[in-house]
Amino acid sequence: MTALDSRQTPKVSRPFLLPSLYAGNARSVMQRGVLATASTNWLIVVSGFFEPVFYLLAMGIGLGSFIGTVELPGGQPVPYAAYIAPALLAVAAMNGAIFDSTWNVFFKMNFGKLYDGMLATSLGPFDVALGEIMLALARGFVYACGFMIVMQVLGLNLSWMAILALPSVLLIAFAFASFGMGITSYMKTFQQMDWINFIMLPMFLLSATFFPITVYPTALQWVIQAMPLWHGVELIRGFTTGAIDAATPWHVLYFAVMIVLGMTLTTRRLKALFLK
After folding, report:
1. Is the CB of residue 104 less than 8 Å from the CB of residue 36?
2. Structure-model confidence comparison of residues 110 and 275, the more confident one
3. Can you state the percent helix, strand and coil of the chain, rounding each to 5?
4. Which residues, including other chains, have CB under 8 Å from residue 156's CB and lie 6 or more apart?
């Protein structure tokens, strides 16, 4: 018996579901991303936490001293800082997830060629997609915990239900990351990537972040309500202010559908690009 014959080829036990796409080892993709972030990108991650804090101090505390209170849809008046703080938390979740699932993925896909190497192993496209998205979720959760502490110190969490904002942040980040990675797979140049910022900017400014959407004409309100960030803002604001209403389950359902569609898109694109 030769040495080659005596070698034992390791067997990969794949899950029952999606055996051709998923090896059940998405954690290795996430671990690689954590190590890379800790060694090279930690400053970018830290700066991402301070951005919403600066907005809160400048707009919520500074400008809020002139505005006073804002009335919620149910008629409950809240301080302006308490009104925009949950919106900024939703924006932080979106920004963290989008950065990890777009620019990072764009570099790994088109320049680093990391996915070619990953998919040459036992990993499947669903492992890669889920691992990258889990990394984005971890980043979004760190941002959320830090910002929630700031809100608590400033007295901007007006309800005990504010703790539910943390799983809401994960839901929002998951939805944006799953779609962001799938859309990035179609991008080939840096100029095309600029379209992502072009889409995110109006969502940030218009999605009831700094003022109620009732200031807009009815037609524009319908457009804003179709945007994912508006649902995230309303979901988190409901928990931090205690203004839960019948629309809350619909916000959750919106993101659940977005996650399913985004994961399907991303997995199929990775399979088409790297498993020809």
Report:
1. no
2. 110
3. 75, 0, 25
4. 60, 79, 81, 82, 85, 240
Compute the half-sphere exposure of residue 185: CA atoms within 13 Å on the CB side of its CA. Answer: 22
Domain boundaries, the chain: 22-274
| Of 108, 106, 99, 126, nearest in space to 264 by CA | 126
CA-based torsion, 23, 28, 32, 34: positive or negative: positive
Q: Answer yes or no: pTM beyond 0.85.
A: no
Q: Give the residues across from 71 on adjacent strands.
A: 77
Task: Report how far residue 101's alpha carbon sits from residue 128's, in angstroms, rounded to the nearest whole number.
Answer: 11
The C-alpha angle with vertex 59 and arms to 139 and 83, in degrees rounded to 5, equals 75
- Above 70 in pLDDT, residue 2? no
The DSSP result for 6-66, as a single string, is H--PPPP---SSSTTT--S-HHHHHHHHHHHIIIIIHHHHHHHHHHHHHHIIIIIIIIHHH
Whether 89 contacts 151, CB under 8 Å: yes
Q: What is the pLDDT of residues 243-263, one digit of tens each?
A: 888 899 999 999 999 999 988
Q: Say how many C-beta atoms besides its own lie within 10 A of residue 23's C-beta.
A: 20
Q: What is the DSSP letter of 112?
A: S
Reply yes or no on whether the pLDDT at 149 is more than 70: yes
pLDDT of residue 132: 80
Strands (E), the chain: 69-71, 77-79
Report the pLDDT value the prediction gives residue 6, as an integer from 0 to 100.
45
DSSP state of 239: H
Tally Cβ neighbours within 10 Å of residue 230.
Answer: 23
